[in-house]
Automatic annotation (TrEMBL):
<dbReference type="GO" id="GO:0004636">
    <property type="term" value="F:phosphoribosyl-ATP diphosphatase activity"/>
</dbReference>
<keyword id="KW-0963">Cytoplasm</keyword>
<comment type="pathway">
    <text>Amino-acid biosynthesis; L-histidine biosynthesis; L-histidine from 5-phospho-alpha-D-ribose 1-diphosphate: step 2/9.</text>
</comment>
<keyword id="KW-0368">Histidine biosynthesis</keyword>
<dbReference type="Pfam" id="PF01503">
    <property type="entry name" value="PRA-PH"/>
</dbReference>
<dbReference type="InterPro" id="IPR008179">
    <property type="entry name" value="HisE"/>
</dbReference>
<keyword id="KW-0067">ATP-binding</keyword>
<keyword id="KW-0547">Nucleotide-binding</keyword>
<keyword id="KW-0378">Hydrolase</keyword>
<protein>
    <recommendedName>
        <fullName>Phosphoribosyl-ATP pyrophosphatase</fullName>
        <ecNumber>3.6.1.31</ecNumber>
    </recommendedName>
</protein>
<keyword id="KW-0028">Amino-acid biosynthesis</keyword>
<dbReference type="InterPro" id="IPR021130">
    <property type="entry name" value="PRib-ATP_PPHydrolase-like"/>
</dbReference>
<comment type="similarity">
    <text>Belongs to the PRA-PH family.</text>
</comment>
Amino acid sequence: MSETLERLEAVIASRRGADPGSSYVASLFAKGRPKIARKFGEEAVETIVAALAEDGPALTGEAADVLFHLMVLLADAGVPLSDVLAELDRREGVSGIIEKAGRTT
């Protein structure tokens, strides 16, 4: 599964410097992090709407949009996918209640 996300991360990186007129990813980078973050938020809301509507196909599509826009946001912030996956690995087997209690922020 992570191979798909790793390929997506590579594609996003390769399109970062592309012409914004011909690449959606490049156009997002050109508009800056606030626009990327807003787009991620929009997709998250659309995912919630699809979930509450119990629309499986729409939820699948919106979830893909969320992952895509999160990956663009991570790339813009210089956070590699491997760091996110390592954090998930670190949390594996830890109670969510205990993990949240240990957070400083």
